[in-house]
Specification:
17% strand, RpiB, EC 5.3.1.6, alpha/beta, isomerase, 150 residues, ribose-5-phosphate isomerase activity
């Protein structure tokens, strides 16, 4: 089965988006790229998150990658959508745990952030981790219940 990812970014993360996209393609992922490749033209990150989530919801995607200058704004925007769990990971540990414990379906990065670890390794940690289920599924169910009431 083909591995598929949706990716979007704003003008603040063009270079990193290109690196992550190439890395995913080298790993055999088909990447539906909805981002901008022009760092000189301002693009609003909430709309980029919206486009990626709408595409993800069409089905067939394993996960999504979102990028803006810090990763903060685009992850906040994505998390406004029901069923989306977007994690802004700063290192391989948080990337591993967001998959194992939160079953995050999106991961976010900041194009203007100086990471202590290579963002490609952070992405690899996310990709190589598996959701543990159990008590963690109960907590995801609780998040889903909160979404229904808000």
């Amino acid at each position: 089965m083909e591995k598929k990812c949706v990716m979007a970014n704003d003008h603040g993360a063009v270079e990193l988006a290109g690196k992550l996209r190439k890395h995913l393609e080298d790993l055999g992922y088909s990447v539906t790229y909805l981002g901008t490749d022009n760092p000189d033209v301002s693009v609003d990150y909430p709309r980029q998150a919206e486009k990626a989530v709408e595409e993800y919801r069409r089905g067939g995607y394993d996960f999504g990658v979102l990028l803006c200058g810090t990763g903060i704004g685009i992850s906040i925007a994505a998390n406004k959508f029901h069923g989306i769990r977007c994690a802004l990971c700063q290192d391989t540990y948080t990337a591993t745990m967001t998959k194992k414990h939160n079953n995050a379906n999106f991961i976010a990065f900041g194009g203007r952030v100086e990471y202590k670890e290579d963002p490609l390794k952070i992405l690899d940690a996310y990709l190589s981790s598996e959701f543990e289920g159990g008590r963690h599924q109960r907590r995801i169910n609780e998040i889903t219940e909160i979404e229904r009431h808000c």
